[in-house]
Amino acid sequence: MIEKRRSIRQYKPDAVSAEDLEEIIEAARLAPSGTNRQPWRFVLINDEAGKEKLAGAVVQPFVLHAPAVFICCLDRNAYTRGLVEKRMKELVRSNVVSEEAAGYIYKRKMPEQTEDVVIPASAYIDLGIAVEHMVLTAAALGLGSCWVRLFDPKQVHESLGLPGDIEVVALLPVGYPAEEPSPRPRLDRDQIMIEAK
Ligand SMILES: Cc1cc2nc3c(=O)[nH]c(=O)nc-3n(C[C@H](O)[C@H](O)[C@H](O)COP(=O)(O)O)c2cc1C
Fold this sequence. Notes:
The protein has a domain at 18-77 and 117-179: NADH Oxidase. It is built from 8 helices and 4 strands; from the N terminus they run αβααβαααβαβα. By secondary structure, the chain is α+β, with helices and mostly antiparallel strands. It has helices spanning 18-29, 48-55, 62-65, 81-93, 99-107, 121-140, 153-159, 189-192, and strands spanning 40-45, 68-75, 144-145, 166-175. It is 39% helix and 13% strand. Bound molecules: flavin mononucleotide (FMN).
């Protein structure tokens, strides 16, 4: 799947079945995340009314031609002390993390309330893993998708009426491929491996 996957920017009009969409959502749900915080949230747009709301915020029209678009978001609540400690305690209870290691996390400065949360870099790592799970699952189902960051997240947030604790990060249009792009160039193995001194 990793070798076959491409970013797909042309889709057949055929709808994606509810089962396939659920399998894609399940792939995101099962992703790993720092302290098992699972900060990802998704909105599924798969009707014309929803796409009309996205229209003004999208730069590349192909996004609106996909039968389904996932709006990939982060939930600031996941970074409040209450929720981080809850997740940490779950990990300690299942003997995945020691009390001592958990202690390091509890000592960290953490916002008590959502309004004070500045989303950390680790959140984007976690969301990235979840979205790539979705991308690979879509590919395994014979579907195409494309990561999209070239759009106006504030406008999407506003037009979809999302809550203030949600930050919109990326779009993931999904549909049956109507193109077979050749592989995009990649750096060589030796260009990505660095020797330690
Ligand atoms: C985080 C991220 C953001 C991207 N944003 C866009 C985008 O806004 N528009 C677009 O057409 N492609 C976007 N892409 C797709 C890349 O252009 C593509 O992955 C790259 O050219 C390699 O091609 P491939 O995915 O077909 O292997 C994005 C990819 C990633 C991972």
